[in-house]
Structure formats: structure tokens, C-alpha cells
Write a structure and sequence with these properties.
This protein is mainly β. It has three domains: about 160 residues, Nuclear Transport Factor 2, Chain: A (Roll), CATH 3.10.450; about 150 residues, Jelly Rolls (Sandwich), CATH 2.60.120.10; about 100 residues, Jelly Rolls (Sandwich). It has three helices and 27 strands. The strands form five sheets. Strands 7, 8, 10, 11, 13, 15, 16, 17 and 18 form a nine-stranded antiparallel beta sheet that branches. A hairpin with a 2-residue loop joins strand 16 and strand 17. Helix 2 crosses helix 3. The longest helix has 21 residues. This is SnoaL-like domain-containing protein. InterPro entries: Cyclase_SnoaL-like (IPR009959), NTF2-like_dom_sf (IPR032710), RmlC-like_jellyroll (IPR014710), RmlC_Cupin_sf (IPR011051). It holds the Pfam family SnoaL. It comes from uncultured Thermomicrobiales bacterium. Keywords: Signal.
Length: about 425
């Protein structure tokens, strides 16, 4: 899929005009010599070619020659980490979730050390979230982008608001077959203080985790799978975790843990370390029966302990039971940023989506089954959520199968949300 047709000349003119004031204010502070326009244009084209190479192969080496190590990116979803390494993690996430995706330079112009590009997307724009969240108009890359060049490399990036949501994939993991009855999808962030170590434990269902910050040591006493981030060495496919041996984890690593596998995480670094985790577990065993979407669940059922000896569990969203696709399930996780007035379209699906607001005010204007999924709060009956049901930081909403509409920014500032989807084989 590609962005809707717009006039490239008009878009580029608007982008340049919107950055004129910034450029004038920064002119005196810019470091390095100004690149001729032709050189800036050439480097910009090389940048997108290198980015596509990383998406295809998972090897971050191609961007080394065209991106400065201290790259500065502007925008709420600029990168999961600063510098070139943050961009590498973004591209590796695209490789892991949508390797067929390609960035298409639809128009590009340069003036001095700055280049402005209109970027289209081909292939994979809906696949990485399993079609549970429609991204016909929202893409995992800004439609308009401004690049600043110095010393032959990209040193700064701006994403230009075009009123469409910006959706970035974080992980996409096959879970296999799940129980056919009602289940609960939950999201949590686990923060480990320096030296903190958790006990060996199991979960009530399969769990996936993404290392967000710091370094961990994982010990698994059973089957587990690991997908390495590019910074941890040559990227490759999912590999089994050695049983009974601690394995070092770095930011960007992804872990799949079956429910029965005993596991323990330890902060192996000197600073704080965090995991972003998603789990799916059977609601029948928690006494919810068939009360789909309307059933409530104490959020402690997924991660029973909120804090334990230097480990703090932030329950992001969950607590509502729903029916999941039973066969060939895949769980995917993405982060979306919406500028004021921007919207992220939804399309009907037989999967479910759990949306958690991290910042700002969200308007989940949808049709079909939907229920609030605020941690620790009762689930609401299936209802159409509209502008009167705006969600703020700490709120969540579970979107059932068949819903459509859009997620929109309802406030004066940007909105950042986490979107977790569970889809079956027919929707991937």
C-alpha cells in the first residue's frame, strides 16, 4: 500500500515552509560545512537505499556509511534509542515484522545541506500487525521527511506532520494455537533496579518480551526462543535459548516464553533495565466463563506482584476477556504516534487489538465490540466508544473482532499509544 496521492510539489513546498523558521534559528548553531544541494540530494537517495537494504536483510551495516553515529531525530517516534543505533533498531524491527516493506522516494528536493523527501510505502504496510489495525493511510515511516547533511552523512531528521498516524512495529511473534475459549491479553512494563533479580516462575499463558533499556541475563528452565537485535551481533532467525544457562540480553532483543517454561530475569547492568511484555492467558481458569468482553479480571492475575525486591511491574492495559482466533495465532506489538488532529484508521478484522495510551488524549471512535481495559478497573459492556469516551495516559481499550473506525488525537498535543494485536492464520 502507498500513501494517498497528493501533489509532491505542494507537499514539499509545505514541508520546506514549515521548517523555514527552524532553519533560520538554527543557522548559527549548525556544526560542519554546508553541503551543496546536489550532494545532499545524492546522500538522501543513498540513505533510503541503505534503509531498504537493512529492512530486507536485517544487517544494519549499510546505514553506517550514510548516517552519523550521533544522528538526531525529531518527533515522538523518531527512534527507540538515540543516534544511529536507534535507527538501526527501527529498521531491524521492520525486517523482523515486515521484511517485504520498501520505502519509495516519490519526490525529493534539496537546498544547501537539507533535503526534503516524500516517501511512499510498498509491500507489508498492513502485514506486520496482522491486519488487525488498518494502516491504509498510516505507515511505519513518515510520509514527509526532512534530512540535514553534514560531512557526507545524515546528521538530523524531522518527520513532517501530514495528519496521519505514525505506526512503528516493535515485535511480531507466532504463538501457534491458543485455547478456543475466552482469553485475556495484557501488557506490562517491568522495571528492574540495578542488581535486581526475579525468581524462577511461570506465566498463565505464553508471553513475549522486548528489552527496552539496559542489559538482562535470562535463565530459562525449558523451551524458549530468542530473536537478537542487530546490536547483539549478526541478526538471524529465532533461535532456541540454551536451557539452564544464563543468556545476555540487550535492548531490542525479543523473547518468546511458553507458559510452562520456568524463567528468571536479572538486571545484569549497572543502570536500570526495563522489559515490555505481553501475555495471553485462558480466562476460564480465572472464573470468567463465557462473559466475553464484559467479564472483568483483577489485573494481578497476569503478573501477580506489582513490586518485588527492586522489580516494579507497571500494568499498562488488560483485564478484559475476549474470544481469540484459535488456530495459528500471532501476537504483534507496535507503537503509534498521532499529531493533534491525526488519525490511525482501523479496518474490520477477526482478530483483537488492545490499545494502551502512553501519553496524550485518545479518541477511539469505533464501531463494533469495544471495552475499556484500564488496569485494575472493571471492564465495560461492549459499546461503541466515541469522542465522549476519550482515553488518557494509563487508559486502555480492547477492540473486538469486526470493529472499524479510527484512533484519533483528541487533545492539543500528540498522542502515543501501544497497540497489541492477536490474529489468526486467516488474517496474517
Amino acid at each position: 500500500m502507498r500513501h494517498p496521492n497528493r501533489s509532491p510539489a505542494l507537499l514539499l513546498a509545505l514541508a520546506l515552509s514549515s521548517l523555514t523558521a527552524v532553519a533560520l534559528l538554527r543557522a548559527a548553531a549548525l556544526v560542519g560545512h554546508a553541503e551543496p544541494a546536489a550532494a545532499s540530494e545524492d546522500i538522501a537517495h543513498r540513505f533510503y537505499a541503505a534503509a531498504n537494504a537493512v529492512i530486507q536483510t536485517g544487517d544494519p551495516a549499510p546505514i553506517d556509511a550514510v548516517v552519523a553515529s550521533d544522528l538526531v531525530a525529531h518527533g515522538p517516534l523518531a527512534a527507540p534509542a538515540p543516534g544511529r543505533s536507534g535507527l538501526a533498531r527501527t529498521l531491524f524491527a521492520l525486517h523482523a515484522t515486515a521484511p517485504g516493506l520498501q520505502l519509495v522516494v516519490e519526490a525529493l528536493t534539496a537546498s544547501g545541506d537539507q533535503a526534503v523527501a516524500r516517501i511512499g510505502i510498498e509491500g507489508g504496510t498492513r502485514a506486520f500487525l496482522g491486519a488487525a489495525v488498518g494502516v491504509d493511510q498510516a505507515a511505519p515511516w513518515p510520509a514527509l521527511e526532512v534530512l540535514r547533511v553534514a560531512d557526507g552523512r545524515i546528521v538530523e531528521r524531522w518527520a513532517v506532520d501530514d495528519r496521519l498516524g505514525d505506526l512503528r512495529p516493535l515485535l511480531r511473534v507466532p504463538l501457534g494455537d491458543l485455547p478456543a475459549g475466552p482469553a485475556v491479553v495484557g501488557l506490562a512494563r517491568l522495571a528492574y533496579a540495578p542488581g535486581a533479580a526475579g525468581p524462577l516462575h511461570t506465566d498463565r499463558g505464553p508471553a513475549v518480551a522486548l528489552v527496552e533499556e539496559g542489559g538482562f541475563a535470562l535463565r530459562a528452565e525449558g523451551p524458549a526462543q530468542l530473536l537478537r537485535a542487530p546490536a547483539a551481533g549478526a541478526p538471524g532467525p529465532w533461535r532456541p535459548v540454551p536451557v539452564g544457562t544464563e543468556v545476555a540480553l540487550v535492548p531490542g532483543d525479543q523473547i518468546l516464553l511458553p507458559a510452562a517454561t520456568r524463567r528468571a530475569f536479572r538486571n545484569a547492568g549497572r543502570g536500570p533495565a526495563t522489559l515490555l511484555a505481553a501475555t495471553v492467558f485462558d480466562a476460564e481458569s480465572r472464573g470468567l466463563g463465557s462473559r466475553v468482553l464484559t467479564g472483568t479480571l483483577p489485573w494481578s492475575a497476569a503478573w501477580p506482584v506489582r513490586s518485588w525486591q527492586g522489580i516494579r511491574v507497571q500494568h499498562i492495559a488488560g483485564g478484559v476477556a475476549t474470544m481469540l482466533p484459535g488456530e495459528g495465532c500471532t501476537i504483534a506489538l507496535g507503537r503509534a504516534a498521532l499529531a493533534p488532529g491525526a488519525r490511525l484508521p482501523l479496518v474490520p478484522s477477526d482478530g483483537v487489538a488492545l490499545v494502551a495510551v502512553e501519553a496524550g488524549t485518545l479518541d477511539p471512535a469505533t464501531t463494533g465490540e469495544a471495552a475499556r481495559a484500564r488496569p485494575g478497573a472493571p471492564g465495560e459492556a461492549p459499546a461503541t466508544l466515541n469522542a465522549e469516551a476519550a482515553l488518557t495516559a494509563g487508559d486502555g481499550v480492547l477492540l473486538g473482532e469486526g470493529r472499524a473506525g479510527a484512533l484519533g488525537s483528541a487533545g492539543a498535543g500528540p498522542v502515543v499509544v501501544l497497540v497489541a494485536t492477536v490474529t489468526g492464520a486467516s488474517t496474517r
